[in-house]
Amino acid sequence: MGRAAIGGTGNSVVASPLFVTDRLNLSTSITGRRRFAVAAGGALGAVGRAFVADVVGRTDFNVLWATFIVNVAGSLILGYVVARHAGRSRSSPFLIPFVGVGVLGAFTTFSLFSAEVFELARAGDWVAAVAYPLLSIGAGFVAALLGVRFGGSK
Fold it and tell me: What would the pLDDT profile of 61-110 be if each residue is shown by its tens digit?
């Protein structure tokens, strides 16, 4: 049986505000190497998101489209990666934390999406305030399904 105190040796673990399950010593706890994989992936995802924002910013599109593109692309990629690698013993234990949590967590953005919908409503553009989230969620769902379909095929 593990120690009750946090941070000792043996079966005890160091608590982290990001990974509450560590305190419970569950099989889903994230190791230090997985945390590093998340951080490294997050750095890449943030750069990717900035790149998309820069490219879309140089076009006639506005920031709504940059958010739409990264969120739908992230749904497609995550669907693929999860279908392709989740539960497979030959996959790296760092792949899902690196790609799913790190890269795609930083690449996609729900908070900016929510702020954009709020701004559309505040500006009185009710058609866009309703259509944008419906289109985004619908496209993200379809993209995730396509990713799962492509990722699940061999």
Answer: 577 889 999 999 999 999 999 898 876 777 788 888 899 999 999 999 99
The DSSP symbol for 10 reads T
Q: How many domains does the chain have?
A: 2
**Same-domain status, 82 and 133:** yes
Are residues 74 and 14 part of one domain? no
The C-alpha atoms of residue 62 and residue 119 are separated, in whole angstroms, by: 13
- Whole-model pTM above 0.70? yes
Mapped onto helix, strand or coil, the DSSP state of residue 149 is helix
CB 52 within 8 A of CB 59: no
By residue count, the chain amounts to 154
What residues contact 148, with CB distance under 8 A and at least 6 apart? 79, 80, 82, 83
Residue 76's domain spans which residues?
Answer: 31-152
Question: Domain check: are 6 and 36 in the same one?
Answer: no
Measured in whole angstroms, how far is the alpha carbon of residue 79 from the centre of its chain?
11
